[in-house]
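FAQ
Q: What does a multi-component entry look like?
A: The components come first, one per line:
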Amino acid sequence: MSLTGFEVEIQREVDGGLTTEDMTLSMGPQHPSTHGVLRFVVRADGEVMKEAIPDIGYLHRSIEKISEKVGWHGFMPYTDRVDYVAAMFCNQGWAMAAERLASIEVPKRAEYCRIIAAEFNRIQSHLLSVGSMAMDIGAYTPFIHTVREREYINDLIEELCGARLTFNYMRIGGVAWDIPPGWREKALSFLERFEPLIDEYNALISYNKIYTERLRNVAAISAQEAIDYNLVGPNLRGSGVRYDVRRDLPYSVYPELDFDVPVGSGELGTLGDCFDRYMVRMREMKESCKILRQCLAQLPQGPVIAKVARNFKPAAGDCYVRIESARGDMGWYVVSDGTAFPHRCKIRTGSFAAMSIIQKVSRNLMIADLIAVIASFDLVAPEIDR
Amino acid sequence: MQELVDSLVADGFVPGGLPLWVAYLGAMLVFGGIVVFVFILPIAGITTWVERRVAGRIQSRIGPNRTGPAGFLQWLADGIKSVLKEDIVPSAADVPLFKLAPYVVMTGFVAAFVVVPFGGPLIIADLNVGILYLTAVTALVVVGILMAGWASNNKWSLLGGIRSAAQIVSYEIPAGLSILPVVMLAGTLSMQGIIGHQGWAPWTWHVFDNPFTFFAFFILFVSALAEGNRTPFDLPEAESELVMGFATEYSGLRNLLFFMAEWGNLYVIGAVVTTLFLGGWQIPLALADHPVPRIVLQFAIFFAKAYFWVFVAVWLRWTLPRIRVDQMMIMCWKYLVPIAFVNFMGTAVWMVLFPAGVPAVRVLLSLTAAGLLVAFARRVVFHVRRALLTREELSFNPLSTARVMSRG
Amino acid sequence: MAVSDPAAVHAVLRSHFGDAIGDLAGTRPDNAGTTVAPSAIVEVCRFLKTETGLAFDCLSNLSGVDYPKRNIIEVVYHLYSYRYRHLFVLKVEAPRDNPAVSSVAGVWSAAEWQEREVFDLLGVTFEGHPDLRRILMPEDWPGHPLRKDFVEPEEYHGISTSRESLLKT
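Then the predicted structure of the entire assembly, as tokens:
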């Protein structure tokens, strides 16, 4: 049988005579949707990616090395820079690690102050995450609306600790400043305004047909895979694993508070797809509001910082503190050798784990999907590199 | 405009001995210059201002408000800034193509105005193949964009160019198939002829002529958005994916030309749907003896109709996310093309069955459209009022700066 | 039946691996664990992951600590079980001059990048790792920065790594 015309071309391709070359794209370190300086080396055949290889380290500031040089108290401002979108959690992680090593009891009011600050920070971080996710998908308006509310939280936290981004609010043994007079009412007034807005965001973008079509069934991660790659926080819960450090390995005053842990259910597609991860964040904001209302109602009187020596020298030993940051289970492995300087501090962050799974999930997605995947993991570049 | 030149020649305004073609050429240059500098460039610029103000309202912020009243002169300031900026040509670019590309895009866009009517007698050239000419020259834009994507020697730009080519070429088909019913109804390809076939009243418009043209109208508008690279079809630019697509490497005046074409194209889209489906410049008053008020009124009504669709496109852009490239293709080939084809065949059958049209259907369709509009307006009012009633105001002035919440 | 108590986990490990397992150390749940001989780490990890009742399905953290006085580099594994919600810590001691530990990337995928990080910052070679490259530092960076005796190079590709203080005393 002889081949003609177009069939010849096809046959030639089958025989390997006609070779096509993959296009190698360097996405980042400067790219509008990498949220900081990330880089992906994308091998693509037209619009379809064969794989996306993450290349990190562009924001490596040796924070772990700095911890060994600046002393226990002195490291607190540096922790802000680990994850500047959710700095309260880094503050808290470091403070808790030092307190655990030195067996310091934190006053009750200080614990509440910490939780209030941290939960506000969680809402703030999630607002940025869901807003920028919408922006990456091409809808600019939801981003502006979420950032508008984020500004009010910034105002509240600024009043609490004087900073809007890198808070440096917590201290070993408590918090730096007590809640100012009248702040409680402002916080409640904000929650009153904010809670209905979550539904408004859902009406605005979450169930938009184009938006859901872009997110559903994209980069679905099974629960087993998520655990194997040590995904944490909303990324893990998006895959249907009901695990939250606040509930399962409780710390601070979380055992006294009542809240749910939302998980993904594959409501519009496969379990663990981008939409599930996105919705988990949306629902967590509501839970955070619930926690904040309880905390603001139960706020006890008393001091906000324990007596801690200026020349702080915890006993030799190591500890591994887990806290539920906005990006999930954040691990602080801190080793003390009994001197005024930590011997070693390793910060295990959620974004680092999420970054490591991208190469696997990005196979055979489209380039536009990679943007959705990055956004749905809520990657924060400084947290990956530290 | 040929009649005008002919009458001027007959009246002796043109010096004797001058060949006729020189007179025509001069007239063309003069009219072209008037249209380009008095209408096209300002309309493209003002649309950017409108877009930014509308976007500001949608995003609960203000938008440009510093240059001129309500920031109206912002477009001029931006234009001057762009012109004065350094014109960078990447060293690895294909220089001649790189420099040529914006002009090709601009040509494709400006040439469309040759057949865009402005009022009764106001049209540069009422070609007897008007709408065919328009679809042909607007397709020139794709050549320019592909040229820009290729010549930039940047993979992201190339991807943008290829996306644009695929998109524009694909959406030409549903757009063309949606134009055909109107051409069949009017029996002419001339823009003025098509408008002349309709009246001022909604039930005489082509869009309400029969159910098929009703859908054809929407398909044409969606396809036109896709051809104009507007959200939700802005894949060739795709800020968050391809940085700025084919325009990434462009700066200064060349970048300005691309964007002028994009915003100017919005008006072309509005003008085309107004001409084909919405009665064009038809006005209820005869005003046969008062040409100036008549033309002004015709121009105003046409402009209002066309600009309404510009507003809708802006509104869509700030409301919708962007679809993915495969979804865009699926939408075109699996949905729009078959539906447009059914519309085309359906109109043909309708014309055979009811050669004089069915007035009841026309009235019914226009009432349906009016009903939809009213329902939509009520919904908007309801949501705005609910938001105003239920949303808690912050009980405090935030500490750092005295910001005041704007309502709604 | 879950074996959640660290002492019980330790006892199970002892009975299976004998001398490869050191003494139980640590007092709190977050640091209770044991040392493991470098040669046995992969088997121990695989056992901990697959054994019913233990099911440590997640490697939460893998880090390295430099102890110049003891002349060792300690690689620390923090394990967590999502099934039973319990924790355990493994520590492997490797000699400082040529630290080499078997890679557990085949047991938990999460170990792949974490081992790369420990290799990059502390210079521990993970044998059997699929792709052991530097991850945070540039490929040609000299030395491993988190070692206690690391001396910062004067310059990197002609770029000075320090500058004069602008404050004159």
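Q: Is there any commentary attached?
A: Sometimes. For this entry: Residues 6-100 of chain C form a domain with the Beta Polymerase; domain 2 fold (CATH 3.30.460.80).
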